[in-house]
Amino acid sequence: MAENELLPLSPDPLILPPAHKNRRSQSILDLEQVDAFGQLRAIWDILLKHQWLILATACVLTVLVAIYSFKLKPIFQATARIDVEAEVPLLQTLNDLFRAGEADDSFLATQVAILQSDNLAWETMQQLGLGQLEKSTGPSQPQGQNAGTLAKKNAMVAAFKGPLRVERPKDSRMVLVSYESSDPRQAALVVNTLVKNYIERNFRTKYDATRQATGWMEDRLDELKLKVEKSQQAMVAYERQNNIVNIGEKQTVVEARFEDMSKDLSQAQSERLTKESLYKMVMSNDAQVDFIQTGGQAKGQGNGQDNGQGGLLIGLEGKELDLREEYSEAVAQYGPTYPKALKLQDQIKDIEALLQRERKHMVENIHYDYLAALQRERFLAAAVSQQKTQVDRVNQLLIDHNLLKQEFQSNQQLYDSLLQHLKDATVSAGLRATNIHIIDEAPIPSSPVRPNKLRNIEFGLMAGLILGIAFALTQEALDNSIKNAQEMEKLTGLPTLAIIPMGQASPSRHSRQLRGTGANGANSTVPPTVVEMLVLRKPGAAISEAFRALRTSVLLSTAEHPPQVLLITSSQPSEGKTSTSLNLAAALAQKGSRVLLVDSDLRRPGLAKALNLPNTKGLSGILTGAYEFDDTLPQKVEGLEGLSLLSSGPRPPNPAELLCSMKMAQLLARLRQGFDHVIIDSPPILPITDATILSSLVDGVIMVVESDATSRAALHRACRVMEHSGGKILGTVFNKVDARRDGYYGYRYYHGYYSYQYKAYYDRDKDDKDNDQSAA
Fold first, then answer.
1. Which residues lie below 8 Å from residue 594, measured CB to CB, with a gap of 6+?
2. Rounded distance between C-alpha atoms, residue 255 and residue 277, angstroms
3. Tens of pLDDT along 77-109?
4. Which residues pair with 437 in a beta bridge?
5. Contact 598, 679 (CB under 8 A)
């Protein structure tokens, strides 16, 4: 850093520095946010990838369903329609036969269950001769044999009910009864017989229930008749015992008297409270003064006997006031000893004594009135209590009498009602009525309902497509391989230097022609020139342009100067290391550089065979000391002047020891001086350690990753091994990408857009060379 500070070492060498990682994550996040239909396109790519699996599954299942449909025996279905009305009440007249109520869902569901019952099915089977059981030999028949017969009967009934269908259309009283059979006549006969048995059973059940109810009601009538007689006798005896003639009038008189006495008691209580409050008021001094001031007004609120006394007190008080006024004037005029003043003073004293006596007398009258009101209240309270006892007695008599009367009336009503029902049941038993009506009898079907060959084939095709898609998605979910460059960058943190499309010579990925041209070409059935030298043989192809893009990425991978010695490797065999090494070397040589291809795979070499060059002398001989580098002289590659090859040579017994020797380091130092670029094709990382040994001797490592083949775990492990060994991974090459999917649509149109320009360029170059030769 510019500040000369040390950066902390990340525990995972695959993790990029924070700033770089954040920028990369942000760009990926923005892409995912912008691409709203990315998930849909990913699913479409998966379907295109596994299209043959989906189509094969759909075809196989469709053929199997078609064969099964044509081998099936035709099945005919007969259907009858019946109308199920609500239960009709007990019939009294012929008009009641045409009354129909609303049948609820529970009633209709019950009727459907009856149509599907085992007893009705067995009865139908017996009538049509479809159920034959061994006859019982009597009570001595073994129990095991009886159990076997019952099991056989149940099995026959279950087999008969299998093709039977009873359905009820929604919001209707209609019930559809259907039966399927290979014989159309038998299907119609079974349905019609079953419906007739059901109607007969319904009528028979009602008739038996009516007769049973009639017998029960006759027995109950006798019992109710005795109860009516007993309850009536008990009520009459109770009336005689208590002398009850008309208890309703008696109850009215007693209750009215009790009500009047209650009102009198309430009025007496109010009057007593009024007089008690007046008495308490005049007994206090303050109240007495108020009373003297108000005079007859306060007494006027009492009874009329005190009105005279109240008027006398008022007159005395007025006279007292007059005398006091005269006395005041005499004292003021003549003085207190004046005879007139003394006379007036004696008169005032007489008036005061008289007033005091009258007031005392009035208080005594108020007290007497209060005591009288209290006595009257007590008398009325005792009378009300006595009257209440009488009311309670009358009410008790009424309760007992009402109980006896209600018992008599209820028994009488039950008797009358039961007698009426008995008459109704007698009428119903004589009328043949049913609430089940046949709308359409089952006709003999003319065409089978199964198998519907066309529908079955369509269903098989649809199910096959769904199953194939499920297989494809399951296979894709279980696949742990790398699918695209974004996934690879997220996993490793390494940049993708180039994306190499699949070669055009392969009709599909399943041929795997690139696997045969990887680290070795020994077991390849495809000619080596299919992919290895496409940069030279087909410069206008999309794959050639991809390798030129790889060349540009490699030259710009380091800031100081382009890497001189490169190691091409992968995590596993057959991922395209050899093809990448050859085409990258050819692309660098086309730029005018001196390029040396080194085949460091001493176990299974492939470069010499891919270039049709001998492999007699090579790297193994130099490292063992059999000869020097000058003796081997790298072989020139035909068609490209700046490209040379150092083959692997004979297979040594100890390749790893040779690669980690000092001679290998010295050889690479010498090669740096003689060539601009040295491309080393190495074995895979995980199976052997050759690439790990060489990684510390080169300027950079390029990791080749095969699309849909390299597993995530293998790639991650290979990168960790390479980083721990000290190798510098420049980036990855995403190889064998299917241009028809994976989102790399640009490669589809590259050939048509650029091939004409490359063809014109090379044709012009060829004409120039011919002209130069002619001139010479």
1. 642, 644, 674, 675, 676, 677
2. 33
3. 899 998 887 765 555 454 554 454 555 778 888
4. 83
5. yes
